Amino acid sequence: MPLETAFGKLTLIGGGYHSRVYANDRDQIIKVYKHNLGMHHLEAANMTRAGLGNWLVGTFEVAGQEALVMKRFAGAPVDVLSIKAALPALGAFLRQIHQEQFEPIDLSPLKRKLELFQNSLRAYATSLEPYFACLENALQQGILETNSSFCHLDLWFENILFNPPNQVRVVDWHKAALDDPARDYAILFTGTLELLPIAQATQAILELSRLEGVDKRLPAYVALTTLHDLHWFSEKQPEGFQAAFDLKVPRVTWFLEHVHSF
């Protein structure tokens, strides 16, 4: 196997649509991409931009396969037992990568997504009306007009590694881009803080987002992220739509109803 010739004996430890992830006997992680699109270079560049360049070993092309090699982090994905302990370090890291501001957010793609979701999810319009209203009101009132920052944009629990008592490493940087930092907190809320009871999750995300001053934009992006997830299920994995709807909608509806009372 050419990969093992290059990197030593490999053990598959994870993967998804875009890649497979291996560990070797050199205390390294090797991420091998399924499609030759230069994503190993993109992810390495994004990690460096996020201040994680010291974790990189390098990018390689081996027998027609693109690979990103990183040092192994002594941690595991956050879970229901570790998430609260990980949040202070995670919040500090997010504030760090969001610190530099760039050009104003272009809201036209968001408006197009809103129209797309209204069409694709029209069968659930009654249940989702508060989500569309939240977004429309935020757009009309100019609440979402702000400058962009460098964001991760995929903060679900498998991408947040924690090594107690206070070390956090965020992985999987291929989606990172300039965007509203409130989106990172919204994705963190819907993708990771689902591990916590809804009131605890709401309190935690508000504490983090207030430290960065993005809490006023947070409800709209929580609504947008939820609509995006439901649209994805309806288009890509319809057999999983109802389970996603039953999990997400009661929690996010509660959040939108109670967020201003915290």
List keywords for this structure.
Aminoglycoside 3'-phosphotransferase, Chain: A, domain 2; 262 residues; Phosphorylase Kinase, domain 1; 2 domains; alpha+beta; 3-stranded antiparallel β-sheet; 11 strands
Q: What radius of gyration results from the CA coordinates?
A: 19 Å
Envelope shape: globular
Average pLDDT confidence is: 96
The total strand number stands at: 11
Show unreliable segments: none
- What is the annotated CATH architecture of the largest domain? Alpha-Beta Complex
Q: Could you give the order of strands across the largest sheet?
A: 1-2-3-5-4
- CATH topology of the largest domain, by name, is Aminoglycoside 3'-phosphotransferase, Chain: A, domain 2
Briefly, what CATH class of the largest domain? Alpha Beta
CATH homologous superfamily (4th level) name of the largest domain? Aminoglycoside phosphotransferase (APH), C-terminal lobe
> Which band does the percent of strand residues land in?
15-25%
Number of helical elements: 9
Distance between the termini: 56 Å
Count of all domains: 2
Strand count, sense and barrel status of the largest sheet are: 5 strands, antiparallel
Order of helices and strands: HEEEHEEEHEHHEEEEHHHH
Helix-strand makeup class = alpha+beta
**Helicity level:** 40-55%
